[in-house]
Design brief:
CATH class: Alpha Beta
Distance between the termini: 39 Å
Number of helices: 8
Largest sheet: 7 strands, parallel
Number of domains: 1
Strand order of the largest sheet: 3-2-1-4-5-6-9
CATH superfamily: NAD(P)-binding Rossmann-like Domain
Amino acid sequence: MTDKAFHNKVAIVTGAGQGIGFEICRQLVAQGAHVILNDLQESLAREAAKAIVKETKGNCVPVAGDVADVDFLNDLVQEAVSNFGQLNIAVANAGITLFGDFLEYSADDFNSVMSVNLRGTFFLAQAAARQMKDQGAGGKLLFMSSVTGVQAHKNLAAYGMSKAAIQMLAKNLVIELSSYKINVNALAPGATLTARTTAEKDYEKIWAGLTPIGKAASIEDIANAACFLVSSKADHITGQTIVIDGGWTSISPSPI
């Protein structure tokens, strides 16, 4: 990627107050994009955007809100247009993980996972695609799946189900959106070192042992792939899910 591969492009990234979403925002802004950084927590969104602007001297606007709220997602797209005049990229990164034994899993937990992971992804894509269609210049949609959408993992039936559905959504929208020059892809990260995961006991050590290449992914590993897929270099890639797991799904050893 050149330093300004996203010069004057406008992007939305949800769930970006920290971790993978934050790094995607940081890289996009550093490469010239104007970014709407969303997070559920207002303070987290504000501090994340402030840090990115301080480092890059670019444009990153924090917008707090719940991606499970369809009206908010429509407002989020309008926020991008109001601030920067257009929308070219939307990354549905926000998601939640609620572990639980299948036989004991509650309806409330199920609904929470589906509301954020599925409704949040589907309706951000819808709102963004409508704007991109009206603009007439195409665009890029990127969804965040998971290796648990490819390979079964204990206590993650609902989460894995949601992440597999996201991959199918990316494939189905090829039929719906290709005529408008809108590309749709997904990423399926494996174990990734974030502030949340590294707080778990021995997470880095355990996943280094379980991953064929000998280490878990960094947030940069995932963001590098994300930025490629929403760039002009990926114009002929659509409907695909790229697994980024250091080879884990090839052998799939479980930490449990």
